[in-house]
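== Folding the chain ==

***
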Amino acid sequence: MENKRTCLYDRHVALGALISPFGGFDMPIQYSNIIDEHEAVRKHCGVFDVSHMGEVWVSGPDAERYVNHIFTNNIAGAPLHKIYYGMMLYPNGGTVDDLLVYKMGDNKFFIVINAANIDKDVEWMMQNAEGFDVTIDHRSDYYGQLAVQGPEAEKVVEEVLGLACAELAFYTAKTIDTCGETIIVSRTGYTGEDGFEIYGSHDFIVAQWDKLMESGRCKPCGLGCRDTLRFEVGLPLYGDELSADISPIMAGLGFFCKLDKEEFIGKEALAEQKANGVARKLVGIELKDKAIPRHGYTVLNAQGEPVGEITTGYHCISVDKSVAMALVDARYAQLGTELKVQIRKKVFDGTVVKKKFYEKHYKQ
């Protein structure tokens, strides 16, 4: 099956981007190089095409009750325009996907899901809607999406795009009527920096991209640095740090699973994991060397026995250290534990550290 293309695909090709498959789409991985793009977001402003993400509207009399049933976080009585991060789970506690839920009206929610999981997620939502009076409107083919990220993002969105956003608190959204349509702007992102995500029709998103490029005030950024940015601040990537086999408890994301709410799919499994512990846990590992640990590399204990594997690893751009996230046997998850990582034919010493390798700089 051929990969899909976003509404900005031709723009990426014209800019000479390196294009590669990701989540069923042909996506830009980098334009200049990953380090320059990464630094632009940390210090100034970068813009990402994230139109590959999926969008679903849920509305109807039972919308709040239904979303709370399929979502680990608690959106009961949520304030208008507030955004929540959490997961959809299988009954055994494995992760269907991690997602954002926007409260956009009384019993009206806007749900943003990962590109590679769109079909699976929508099917899961439909399957679990039985007995709820809700309408599930899958709009992934309608929306394009831009992420404008970095310390200068607020000024760029306001001054270049003319979209008022300064009043938005972190993890809140607003709608703006412009160009004959209603767009959504939220103070969210996946980089650990302040920033905004903008949802609109394909034509609208292409026009905004052109304005941003013409302004010279932000750098086009590919999925390569999106990964290095999210990794440094300890944000998970579905398929690496979360999956059908990796529960939020194993991934250290229990905070986003509200076990005190009445019910949600997977609640019993998570409660059991919390009470009795899990066999494997996600940890950070810092290597004593500059070698780069990659996804799938084996983690060994001090005796050289395999005890886990790397989920994501890089030589961190912002802190100049070789670090990784790894899923290891729980008994080796304590901070300060000495471990080793097998990189091709060599073995490198490492230490278990916190998964946040760089401090986030969100607007509070």
